[in-house]
Amino acid sequence: MSIASKARRLFVGDLHGCLAELDGLLAEFAFRPGKDCLFSVGDVIGKGPDVVGTLRRLRDLDAGVVVGNHDFSLLEAARQSAAGQEPKHRDYLESLGRDKVEWVDWISTWPLYLESPDVLLVHAGLDPGKKSPARMDPRILTQIRTWDGKGENLNRAGDPPWFECVKSDRIVVFGHWAQRGLIDLPGFKGLDTGCVYGGKLTGWCPEENRFLQVPAKRAYAPIHFH
Ligand SMILES: [Mn+2]
């Protein structure tokens, strides 16, 4: 068996409905459905041009997806009455179209993290104060950028990035920090390179130890780093 025939994993950064760029990345990688494995860092919904198409592609390729802060807000809104929903989150629900109940059902199955012996996948990052991701607050797993020593302010200039405060025996793959851009440290791969803002969609393959990038076809949303 040649090396080329072995299954590979492709981890992709924050999609926010950028289907054309996802398809571009899959083509660049020569992704083989049923053989290679696709994983998303979450924040699949919101902001971008084709949320339903992106969800459908991920589901059809049997992708592993962890929940991002925007996906999390969508699930919260789905549990509230229309009157109680923030307009932005109501828009998220509407963007799911006529099959929104089915899409919400699927999104609600996404875990906060996925792990294998060599990789831990999470949307934003890890709590430096805790050992096991099973014990970490969903708010931290889906929102952290910087560490204040307590987990109260998760995004403060002057505080260190969470990954400078964490020791992990596995490579942590994450997204959520478009402003920071690509993070390529031995134990940490940050894949949010702001595709929906007109940046790039980034993928990372551990088997080939390489990043792949596809430029956004255009800026789909004004820069708003949340
Ligand atoms: Mn995010």
Can you walk me through this structure?
This protein has 226 residues and is α/β, with parallel strands linked by helices. It has one domain (9-215): 4-Layer Sandwich (Purple Acid Phosphatase, chain A, domain 2), CATH 3.60.21. 23% of the residues lie in helices and 17% in strands. The chain has helices at 19-29, 51-60, 69-78, 87-94, 100-107, 138-143, and strands spanning 9-12, 37-40, 64-65, 113-115, 119-122, 171-174, 183-185, 188-190, 200-205, 210-215. The protein has a 5-stranded mixed β-sheet with strand order 3-2-1-9-10, covered by helices on one side. The model has no long low-confidence stretch (mean pLDDT 95). The chain binds manganese (II) ion (MN). Residues 14, 43, 68-70, 123, 176 line the site of manganese (II) ion (MN). Manganese (II) ion is lined by residues 14, 43, 68-70, 123, 176.
